[in-house]
Design brief:
The structure is a single chain. By secondary structure, the chain is α/β, with parallel strands linked by helices. It folds into two domains: about 260 residues, TIM Barrel (Alpha-Beta Barrel); about 90 residues, Orthogonal Bundle (Non-ribosomal Peptide Synthetase Peptidyl Carrier Protein, Chain A). About 45% of the residues lie in helices and about 10% in strands. An eight-stranded parallel barrel has the order 1-2-3-4-5-6-7-8, surrounded by six helices. The protein has a two-stranded antiparallel sheet with strand order 9-10. α15 crosses α17.
Protein backbone atom coordinates (compact mmCIF):
# COMPACT_ATOMS: atom_id res chain seq x y z
CA UNK A 1 0.00 0.00 0.00
CA UNK A 2 1.35 3.40 -0.99
CA UNK A 3 2.85 5.50 1.82
CA UNK A 4 1.66 9.10 1.47
CA UNK A 5 4.62 10.42 3.45
CA UNK A 6 6.95 9.30 0.67
CA UNK A 7 5.36 12.08 -1.38
CA UNK A 8 5.49 14.86 1.22
CA UNK A 9 7.19 18.16 0.45
CA UNK A 10 10.10 19.19 2.68
CA UNK A 11 7.66 21.27 4.74
CA UNK A 12 4.11 20.31 5.73
CA UNK A 13 3.14 23.88 4.88
CA UNK A 14 3.73 22.94 1.24
CA UNK A 15 1.47 20.53 -0.66
CA UNK A 16 2.14 16.82 -0.76
CA UNK A 17 2.83 15.54 -4.28
CA UNK A 18 -0.69 14.28 -4.93
CA UNK A 19 -0.03 14.48 -8.65
CA UNK A 20 2.78 11.97 -8.22
CA UNK A 21 0.60 9.73 -6.07
CA UNK A 22 -2.12 9.64 -8.73
CA UNK A 23 0.44 8.83 -11.43
CA UNK A 24 2.12 6.11 -9.36
CA UNK A 25 -0.34 3.50 -10.55
CA UNK A 26 -1.01 2.53 -6.95
CA UNK A 27 -4.54 2.25 -5.59
CA UNK A 28 -5.49 5.29 -3.49
CA UNK A 29 -8.27 5.29 -0.88
CA UNK A 30 -10.07 8.44 0.21
CA UNK A 31 -12.37 9.48 3.00
CA UNK A 32 -14.45 12.63 3.28
CA UNK A 33 -15.05 15.40 5.80
CA UNK A 34 -18.50 16.91 5.23
CA UNK A 35 -19.04 18.26 8.75
CA UNK A 36 -17.74 21.84 8.36
CA UNK A 37 -15.71 22.10 11.56
CA UNK A 38 -11.98 21.73 12.37
CA UNK A 39 -12.76 19.24 15.15
CA UNK A 40 -14.37 16.92 12.61
CA UNK A 41 -11.34 17.32 10.37
CA UNK A 42 -9.02 16.55 13.29
CA UNK A 43 -10.78 13.23 13.88
CA UNK A 44 -10.85 12.35 10.19
CA UNK A 45 -7.11 13.07 9.99
CA UNK A 46 -6.48 10.19 12.40
CA UNK A 47 -7.91 7.62 9.97
CA UNK A 48 -5.65 5.58 7.62
CA UNK A 49 -6.73 6.99 4.26
CA UNK A 50 -4.49 8.43 1.55
CA UNK A 51 -6.55 11.57 1.03
CA UNK A 52 -9.51 13.49 2.45
CA UNK A 53 -12.20 14.92 0.20
CA UNK A 54 -13.35 18.41 1.25
CA UNK A 55 -16.41 19.55 -0.68
CA UNK A 56 -16.86 23.30 -1.07
CA UNK A 57 -19.52 22.64 -3.71
CA UNK A 58 -22.02 20.95 -1.37
CA UNK A 59 -20.88 22.10 2.08
CA UNK A 60 -21.04 25.67 3.48
CA UNK A 61 -17.31 26.46 3.36
CA UNK A 62 -16.03 30.02 3.23
CA UNK A 63 -12.34 30.84 2.69
CA UNK A 64 -11.44 30.99 6.39
CA UNK A 65 -13.10 27.68 7.25
CA UNK A 66 -11.74 25.93 4.16
CA UNK A 67 -8.17 26.99 4.97
CA UNK A 68 -8.63 25.78 8.55
CA UNK A 69 -9.91 22.36 7.43
CA UNK A 70 -7.06 21.90 4.96
CA UNK A 71 -4.38 22.74 7.51
CA UNK A 72 -6.05 20.58 10.16
CA UNK A 73 -6.02 17.56 7.84
CA UNK A 74 -2.42 18.20 6.76
CA UNK A 75 -0.92 18.81 10.19
CA UNK A 76 -3.00 16.46 12.36
CA UNK A 77 -2.32 13.59 9.96
CA UNK A 78 1.37 14.54 10.09
CA UNK A 79 1.39 14.48 6.32
CA UNK A 80 -0.13 11.02 5.93
CA UNK A 81 -3.42 12.32 4.46
CA UNK A 82 -3.69 14.70 1.51
CA UNK A 83 -6.39 17.41 1.59
CA UNK A 84 -8.24 17.23 -1.75
CA UNK A 85 -10.81 19.98 -2.38
CA UNK A 86 -13.77 20.33 -4.74
CA UNK A 87 -14.49 23.98 -5.53
CA UNK A 88 -17.29 25.20 -7.83
CA UNK A 89 -16.52 27.49 -10.75
CA UNK A 90 -18.66 30.23 -9.16
CA UNK A 91 -16.10 30.55 -6.30
CA UNK A 92 -12.78 31.04 -8.14
CA UNK A 93 -11.22 32.93 -5.22
CA UNK A 94 -11.21 29.72 -3.15
CA UNK A 95 -8.65 28.03 -5.41
CA UNK A 96 -5.78 30.29 -4.35
CA UNK A 97 -6.78 29.99 -0.69
CA UNK A 98 -6.99 26.20 -0.89
CA UNK A 99 -3.67 25.76 -2.65
CA UNK A 100 -1.97 28.31 -0.42
CA UNK A 101 -3.15 26.39 2.65
CA UNK A 102 -1.51 23.20 1.39
CA UNK A 103 -4.18 21.31 -0.54
CA UNK A 104 -2.58 18.55 -2.57
CA UNK A 105 -5.24 18.71 -5.23
CA UNK A 106 -8.30 20.61 -6.40
CA UNK A 107 -11.18 19.53 -8.61
CA UNK A 108 -13.66 21.72 -10.47
CA UNK A 109 -17.12 20.16 -10.92
CA UNK A 110 -19.12 20.32 -14.16
CA UNK A 111 -16.20 21.00 -16.50
CA UNK A 112 -17.85 20.96 -19.91
CA UNK A 113 -15.23 22.07 -22.42
CA UNK A 114 -11.59 22.95 -22.99
CA UNK A 115 -12.15 26.63 -22.23
CA UNK A 116 -13.36 25.84 -18.72
CA UNK A 117 -10.45 23.44 -18.22
CA UNK A 118 -8.06 26.20 -19.29
CA UNK A 119 -9.67 28.58 -16.81
CA UNK A 120 -9.10 26.03 -14.05
CA UNK A 121 -5.43 25.68 -14.96
CA UNK A 122 -5.06 29.46 -14.98
CA UNK A 123 -6.45 29.61 -11.43
CA UNK A 124 -4.06 26.95 -10.13
CA UNK A 125 -0.67 27.47 -11.80
CA UNK A 126 1.80 30.28 -11.36
CA UNK A 127 3.08 32.21 -14.41
CA UNK A 128 4.08 31.29 -17.02
CA UNK A 129 2.02 28.11 -16.61
CA UNK A 130 -1.09 29.97 -15.45
CA UNK A 131 -2.32 33.12 -13.79
CA UNK A 132 -2.30 32.26 -10.09
CA UNK A 133 -1.45 35.27 -7.96
CA UNK A 134 1.62 35.43 -5.72
CA UNK A 135 0.51 34.55 -2.13
CA UNK A 136 2.63 36.77 0.15
CA UNK A 137 1.77 35.14 3.50
CA UNK A 138 0.93 31.53 2.60
CA UNK A 139 4.42 30.41 3.67
CA UNK A 140 6.31 32.08 6.51
CA UNK A 141 9.99 31.99 7.42
CA UNK A 142 11.71 28.65 6.84
CA UNK A 143 8.55 27.26 5.24
CA UNK A 144 9.57 29.22 2.14
CA UNK A 145 13.14 27.92 2.07
CA UNK A 146 12.66 24.18 2.51
CA UNK A 147 12.71 23.07 -1.12
CA UNK A 148 14.77 20.64 -3.21
CA UNK A 149 17.98 22.09 -4.62
CA UNK A 150 17.30 24.28 -7.61
CA UNK A 151 13.57 24.49 -6.89
CA UNK A 152 11.43 27.33 -5.57
CA UNK A 153 8.26 26.95 -3.53
CA UNK A 154 6.36 27.97 -6.67
CA UNK A 155 7.89 25.02 -8.50
CA UNK A 156 6.77 22.75 -5.65
CA UNK A 157 3.21 24.09 -5.80
CA UNK A 158 3.00 23.65 -9.58
CA UNK A 159 4.63 20.20 -9.58
CA UNK A 160 2.80 18.75 -6.56
CA UNK A 161 -0.78 20.09 -6.60
CA UNK A 162 -3.05 18.04 -8.86
CA UNK A 163 -5.53 19.93 -11.05
CA UNK A 164 -8.54 17.70 -11.73
CA UNK A 165 -11.55 18.18 -14.03
CA UNK A 166 -14.85 16.58 -13.03
CA UNK A 167 -16.80 15.08 -15.92
CA UNK A 168 -20.52 14.76 -15.17
CA UNK A 169 -22.49 16.48 -17.95
CA UNK A 170 -23.38 15.52 -21.51
CA UNK A 171 -21.32 18.43 -22.83
CA UNK A 172 -18.35 17.42 -20.70
CA UNK A 173 -18.71 13.84 -21.93
CA UNK A 174 -18.84 15.01 -25.53
CA UNK A 175 -15.73 17.18 -25.06
CA UNK A 176 -13.75 14.94 -22.71
CA UNK A 177 -10.95 14.42 -25.24
CA UNK A 178 -10.34 18.15 -25.71
CA UNK A 179 -10.54 18.67 -21.94
CA UNK A 180 -7.78 16.10 -21.47
CA UNK A 181 -5.61 17.79 -24.08
CA UNK A 182 -5.52 21.31 -22.62
CA UNK A 183 -1.81 22.20 -22.99
CA UNK A 184 0.42 24.04 -20.53
CA UNK A 185 2.48 27.12 -21.41
CA UNK A 186 5.74 25.42 -20.42
CA UNK A 187 5.00 22.58 -22.78
CA UNK A 188 4.39 24.89 -25.71
CA UNK A 189 7.68 26.67 -25.00
CA UNK A 190 9.52 23.35 -25.29
CA UNK A 191 7.68 22.51 -28.53
CA UNK A 192 6.37 19.26 -27.06
CA UNK A 193 2.91 18.28 -25.92
CA UNK A 194 1.51 17.24 -22.57
CA UNK A 195 -1.72 17.92 -20.72
CA UNK A 196 -1.92 20.73 -18.17
CA UNK A 197 -4.83 18.83 -16.59
CA UNK A 198 -3.63 16.20 -14.12
CA UNK A 199 -6.61 13.85 -14.03
CA UNK A 200 -10.35 13.30 -14.32
CA UNK A 201 -12.97 12.85 -11.61
CA UNK A 202 -16.13 11.09 -12.78
CA UNK A 203 -19.33 12.38 -11.18
CA UNK A 204 -21.54 9.37 -11.77
CA UNK A 205 -24.60 10.77 -9.97
CA UNK A 206 -25.00 13.83 -12.19
CA UNK A 207 -23.84 11.90 -15.25
CA UNK A 208 -26.58 9.32 -14.78
CA UNK A 209 -29.21 12.05 -14.37
CA UNK A 210 -28.01 13.70 -17.58
CA UNK A 211 -28.31 10.33 -19.33
CA UNK A 212 -31.92 10.11 -18.06
CA UNK A 213 -31.13 7.11 -15.89
CA UNK A 214 -32.42 6.48 -12.36
CA UNK A 215 -32.19 9.76 -10.45
CA UNK A 216 -30.29 9.50 -7.19
CA UNK A 217 -28.37 6.41 -8.30
CA UNK A 218 -24.59 6.37 -8.59
CA UNK A 219 -23.97 3.19 -10.53
CA UNK A 220 -25.57 0.84 -13.00
CA UNK A 221 -24.94 -1.47 -15.92
CA UNK A 222 -27.06 0.26 -18.56
CA UNK A 223 -25.43 0.22 -21.99
CA UNK A 224 -25.51 4.00 -22.36
CA UNK A 225 -23.89 4.49 -18.94
CA UNK A 226 -21.14 1.95 -19.58
CA UNK A 227 -20.52 3.52 -22.98
CA UNK A 228 -20.06 6.92 -21.31
CA UNK A 229 -17.59 5.47 -18.81
CA UNK A 230 -15.64 3.81 -21.61
CA UNK A 231 -15.45 7.09 -23.50
CA UNK A 232 -14.00 8.80 -20.42
CA UNK A 233 -11.61 5.89 -19.91
CA UNK A 234 -10.37 6.03 -23.50
CA UNK A 235 -9.77 9.79 -23.38
CA UNK A 236 -7.88 9.52 -20.09
CA UNK A 237 -5.82 6.58 -21.28
CA UNK A 238 -4.89 8.29 -24.55
CA UNK A 239 -3.62 11.28 -22.59
CA UNK A 240 -2.03 9.31 -19.73
CA UNK A 241 -4.35 10.76 -17.08
CA UNK A 242 -5.55 9.01 -13.90
CA UNK A 243 -9.26 8.71 -13.08
CA UNK A 244 -10.90 9.27 -9.69
CA UNK A 245 -14.41 8.82 -8.32
CA UNK A 246 -16.64 7.43 -5.59
CA UNK A 247 -16.42 3.75 -4.74
CA UNK A 248 -20.04 2.62 -4.48
CA UNK A 249 -19.44 -1.02 -3.58
CA UNK A 250 -16.54 -3.50 -3.50
CA UNK A 251 -17.71 -5.13 -6.73
CA UNK A 252 -18.18 -1.71 -8.31
CA UNK A 253 -14.65 -0.69 -7.38
CA UNK A 254 -13.29 -3.79 -9.09
CA UNK A 255 -15.20 -2.95 -12.27
CA UNK A 256 -13.94 0.64 -12.20
CA UNK A 257 -10.38 -0.59 -11.65
CA UNK A 258 -10.73 -2.49 -14.91
CA UNK A 259 -11.65 0.85 -16.50
CA UNK A 260 -8.48 2.50 -15.24
CA UNK A 261 -9.70 4.21 -12.07
CA UNK A 262 -7.10 4.22 -9.29
CA UNK A 263 -8.42 6.63 -6.63
CA UNK A 264 -11.69 6.07 -4.78
CA UNK A 265 -13.61 7.92 -2.06
CA UNK A 266 -15.16 5.10 -0.03
CA UNK A 267 -15.86 6.59 3.41
CA UNK A 268 -16.88 9.76 5.21
CA UNK A 269 -17.37 11.29 8.63
CA UNK A 270 -21.18 11.28 8.48
CA UNK A 271 -21.17 7.67 7.32
CA UNK A 272 -18.91 6.70 10.23
CA UNK A 273 -21.08 8.42 12.84
CA UNK A 274 -24.32 6.87 11.56
CA UNK A 275 -22.77 3.42 11.24
CA UNK A 276 -21.23 3.43 14.70
CA UNK A 277 -24.36 4.82 16.36
CA UNK A 278 -26.72 2.24 14.89
CA UNK A 279 -24.35 -0.71 15.30
CA UNK A 280 -23.51 0.10 18.91
CA UNK A 281 -27.15 0.52 19.93
CA UNK A 282 -28.07 -2.71 18.16
CA UNK A 283 -25.17 -4.65 19.73
CA UNK A 284 -25.89 -3.56 23.29
CA UNK A 285 -29.65 -3.97 22.95
CA UNK A 286 -29.12 -7.49 21.65
CA UNK A 287 -26.83 -8.30 24.56
CA UNK A 288 -29.25 -7.02 27.19
CA UNK A 289 -32.39 -8.46 25.63
CA UNK A 290 -30.84 -11.74 24.57
CA UNK A 291 -32.23 -11.19 21.12
CA UNK A 292 -29.22 -12.87 19.54
CA UNK A 293 -28.03 -12.40 16.01
CA UNK A 294 -31.41 -11.31 14.73
CA UNK A 295 -31.34 -8.23 16.93
CA UNK A 296 -34.12 -6.43 18.74
CA UNK A 297 -37.05 -5.70 16.39
CA UNK A 298 -38.06 -2.60 18.33
CA UNK A 299 -34.59 -1.09 17.98
CA UNK A 300 -34.43 -1.99 14.30
CA UNK A 301 -37.78 -0.35 13.70
CA UNK A 302 -36.85 2.73 15.71
CA UNK A 303 -33.65 3.20 13.76
CA UNK A 304 -34.81 2.05 10.34
CA UNK A 305 -34.56 5.55 8.90
CA UNK A 306 -31.02 5.91 10.24
CA UNK A 307 -29.63 2.59 9.03
CA UNK A 308 -26.82 4.02 6.96
CA UNK A 309 -24.58 1.00 7.36
CA UNK A 310 -21.28 0.45 5.62
CA UNK A 311 -20.09 -1.36 3.63
CA UNK A 312 -22.71 -1.63 0.92
CA UNK A 313 -23.55 -5.22 1.91
CA UNK A 314 -24.98 -4.01 5.22
CA UNK A 315 -27.18 -1.47 3.48
CA UNK A 316 -28.41 -4.11 1.07
CA UNK A 317 -29.24 -6.37 4.01
CA UNK A 318 -31.34 -3.63 5.60
CA UNK A 319 -33.30 -3.06 2.40
CA UNK A 320 -33.74 -6.78 1.84
CA UNK A 321 -35.10 -7.19 5.38
CA UNK A 322 -37.78 -4.55 4.76
CA UNK A 323 -38.87 -6.22 1.53
CA UNK A 324 -38.90 -9.67 3.14
CA UNK A 325 -41.10 -8.37 5.94
CA UNK A 326 -43.57 -6.94 3.44
CA UNK A 327 -43.56 -10.21 1.49
CA UNK A 328 -44.10 -12.03 4.80
CA UNK A 329 -41.23 -14.44 4.17
CA UNK A 330 -37.96 -15.04 6.10
CA UNK A 331 -35.07 -12.97 4.78
CA UNK A 332 -33.08 -16.04 3.73
CA UNK A 333 -36.05 -17.28 1.69
CA UNK A 334 -36.56 -14.07 -0.27
CA UNK A 335 -35.85 -14.71 -3.95
CA UNK A 336 -34.13 -11.51 -5.04
CA UNK A 337 -34.02 -12.50 -8.70
CA UNK A 338 -37.81 -12.79 -8.70
CA UNK A 339 -39.40 -10.81 -11.51
CA UNK A 340 -41.10 -7.57 -10.57
CA UNK A 341 -44.73 -7.31 -11.56
CA UNK A 342 -47.20 -4.47 -11.62
CA UNK A 343 -49.71 -6.77 -9.99
CA UNK A 344 -48.92 -9.43 -7.42
CA UNK A 345 -45.32 -10.52 -6.98
CA UNK A 346 -44.80 -12.63 -3.85
CA UNK A 347 -47.38 -12.98 -1.15
CA UNK A 348 -49.80 -10.11 -1.47
CA UNK A 349 -47.28 -7.38 -2.30
CA UNK A 350 -46.82 -5.99 -5.80
CA UNK A 351 -44.23 -3.57 -7.14
CA UNK A 352 -46.06 -0.33 -6.19
CA UNK A 353 -46.70 -1.54 -2.64
CA UNK A 354 -43.08 -2.59 -2.21
CA UNK A 355 -41.76 0.80 -3.33
CA UNK A 356 -44.21 2.56 -1.03
CA UNK A 357 -43.03 0.47 1.91
CA UNK A 358 -39.38 1.30 1.18
CA UNK A 359 -40.14 5.02 0.87
CA UNK A 360 -41.92 5.07 4.21
CA UNK A 361 -39.30 3.01 6.04
CA UNK A 362 -36.20 4.82 4.75
CA UNK A 363 -37.71 8.27 4.21
CA UNK A 364 -36.69 8.51 0.55
CA UNK A 365 -38.70 9.50 -2.51
CA UNK A 366 -38.84 7.02 -5.40
CA UNK A 367 -40.64 7.82 -8.64
CA UNK A 368 -41.91 5.34 -11.21
CA UNK A 369 -39.35 6.73 -13.64
CA UNK A 370 -36.52 5.92 -11.21
CA UNK A 371 -37.33 2.21 -11.34
CA UNK A 372 -38.74 1.99 -14.84
CA UNK A 373 -35.94 -0.24 -16.11
CA UNK A 374 -35.84 -2.54 -13.09
CA UNK A 375 -36.79 -6.16 -13.69
CA UNK A 376 -35.94 -7.93 -10.43
CA UNK A 377 -36.18 -7.37 -6.69
CA UNK A 378 -32.36 -7.24 -6.59
CA UNK A 379 -32.49 -4.18 -8.88
CA UNK A 380 -34.61 -2.43 -6.25
CA UNK A 381 -32.30 -3.51 -3.41
CA UNK A 382 -29.22 -2.19 -5.25
CA UNK A 383 -30.92 1.11 -6.07
CA UNK A 384 -32.23 1.86 -2.57
CA UNK A 385 -28.96 0.79 -0.90
CA UNK A 386 -27.01 3.11 -3.20
CA UNK A 387 -29.34 6.01 -2.38
CA UNK A 388 -28.82 5.45 1.35
CA UNK A 389 -25.05 5.19 0.94
CA UNK A 390 -24.96 8.46 -0.96
CA UNK A 391 -26.96 10.25 1.74
CA UNK A 392 -24.58 8.87 4.37
CA UNK A 393 -21.40 10.28 2.86
Amino acid sequence: MLNTKDYNALSLAQPTNFKGMLNSGELLWGTGCRIPHPEAARVVAATPYHFCFLDAEHAPLNATLLVSLIRTIQYHSNGSMVPFVRIPRCSPELYNYALGAGAGGVVMPHVQNAKQAEELVQLCRFPPLGGRSFPPAALIGEQQNRTPEGKTTYDVWDEHAAVICQIEDLEGLENVEEICRVPGAHVLTLHTWSSAVDGLFVGTGDLRMCLNLAHGSLDGDEAVFLSALRKIRDAAKANHLPIMGFGISPSGVELRREMGWNAFIIHGDIDAICTSAVQSLQTYTDAVSGAGANGCPSVRAKNAKQSFKSPMASLESNVKAVIAKQFKVPVDELTTDAELKNGLALGDLGRPQMLTALQERFDIYITDEDTDGFTTIQDVIDYVATRLWWYAI
